[in-house]
Amino acid sequence: MDSLSIRGGVPLRGEVQISGAKNAVLPIMAATLLTDEPCVIRHVPNLSDVRFMGQILESLGAKVEFEKDVLRVHAKKIQGAGDYDLIRKMRGSICILGPLLGRLRQAKVSLPGGCVIGARPVDLHLKGMEALGTKVTVQNGYVTAKAPKLAGSEVFLGGRAGPTVLGTANVMMAAALADGITVIESAACEPEVIDLADFLNSMGARITGAGSPTVQIAGVSRLHGAEHEVIPDRIEAATFAIAAAATGGEVTLRGARPDHLSAVFDKLSESNVRVERKGRIVTVKRGGKLRPIDVTTLPYSGFPTDVQAQMMVLMCLTSGISIITERVFESRFMHVSELARLGADISIEGPSAIVKGGRPLSGAPVMASDLRASAALVIAGLAASGTTVVNRVYHIDRGYEQIDEKLRKLGARIERIKET
Ligand code: UD1
């Protein structure tokens, strides 16, 4: 397994181009299964999760070509049972369930496994499919769904922790080819849901209200091929913005969507980080001494859980007490013990992490536990004195396109150590 070696203490300076959004492209790739015509997706990040989803589509019978940032999928003839082990490995693969049901009226997919960021049930996905008239059984690790007739219906998708992003995507995709009208209440409002709806509509679907808690889908009898450009990755943009602030540098994000980042930019401003926006160009630098802040993660348009770990690093570098409360995924604090190795003082009280910031961080070997935790450890390594080695970086390669190369261009002393 590769690792990243970082010699910290260099303020990041320069410009970085933001890639296409991982969380938008995965469901969009799944949506290509809804038509027997070719689809072209542009601005696709070259990530291991994307290549992995490509393999899943191929295992179902689709032809997949990925060149530069253009992905072509032709699902002319597909089968409804996915490869158990392939699907089990990636949580995002659950979003093939909706398209398979829509197109074939049946699907058999493995239950995505648990994950270190907390229990990740799929009950809401299944509830949505059942509302459309699907008979769902869960047995021997498989979800088997059959719907000789898929009928539009009203479905409430709010759960204990709020709406579900991929659950909303799944129901939207199945309902696109159902008979009649489906109304999703308490739908996820994330920009990635809007991007999926835009793609589906360009395929001939009739979806309105995406981005609001009520989404209406008028089913159509068939969908056609389409071309689509994926939205920029707001989590990648937030990660670089925080890295700029953490290292005391100045970084310009190119091709970002500041309108997708209001909650993050608001908190950065509160902590005395200056965020200047000019269209899709955003420049981030400290405004002076950092100020402690309180952050609570929430579904969109609240502060994203996927930026919680990175923000915690900034809090570690800020004198005073900051509090970060995780409301989306319980136990998403695996990075805390690793940050402690660098000298951070963080205690966990229920869903909150209390950060006593301002202690100097010094490099150490650390272990990445999940995608965003890895990004946080890289930022911490960039801000710490000495050398930090982040092990198990395959997590970071799942969701950040060439992060080491992008950081090097900003002046970071970061090397990938290949496993021999
Ligand atoms: C997506 C993102 C992930 C992000 C998350 C929350 C992708 C590929 N992943 O994951 O990066 O962190 O949104 O913004 O887009 N829940 C249930 N029952 C369900 C489904 C979810 O109780 O059937 C709960 C989850 O345990 C969690 C909350 O709902 O507490 C939100 O999860 P959800 O929005 O579904 O996350 P994902 O869509 O899997």
Brief overview:
By secondary structure, the chain is an alpha+beta fold.
Q: How would you describe the overall organization of this protein?
A:
This protein is of the alpha+beta class and 420 residues long. It has two domains: 3-19 and 232-417, UDP-n-acetylglucosamine1-carboxyvinyl-transferase, Chain; 22-220, Enolpyruvate transferase domain (UDP-n-acetylglucosamine1-carboxyvinyl-transferase, Chain, Alpha-beta prism). The protein has 14 helices and 23 strands. The chain has helices spanning 22-31, 48-59, 84-89, 97-104, 123-131, 165-176, 191-202, 234-247, 262-270, 308-316, 335-341, 371-383, 394-399, 403-409, and strands spanning 3-7, 13-17, 38-42, 63-67, 70-74, 106-110, 135-139, 142-146, 154-156, 181-185, 206-208, 214-218, 227-229, 250-254, 273-278, 281-286, 294-296, 320-325, 345-349, 352-357, 365-367, 387-391, 413-417. The strands form six sheets. It has a four-stranded mixed beta sheet, with helices on one face. Strands 2-14-16-15 form a four-stranded mixed beta sheet. Helix 1 (22-31) runs parallel beside helix 2, helix 8 (234-247) runs parallel beside helix 10 (308-316) and helix 10 (308-316) runs parallel beside helix 12 (371-383). The structure holds uridine-diphosphate-N-acetylglucosamine. Uridine-diphosphate-N-acetylglucosamine (UD1) is lined by residues 23, 26, 91-92, 119-125, 159-161, 164-167, 188, 192, 305-306, 328-329.
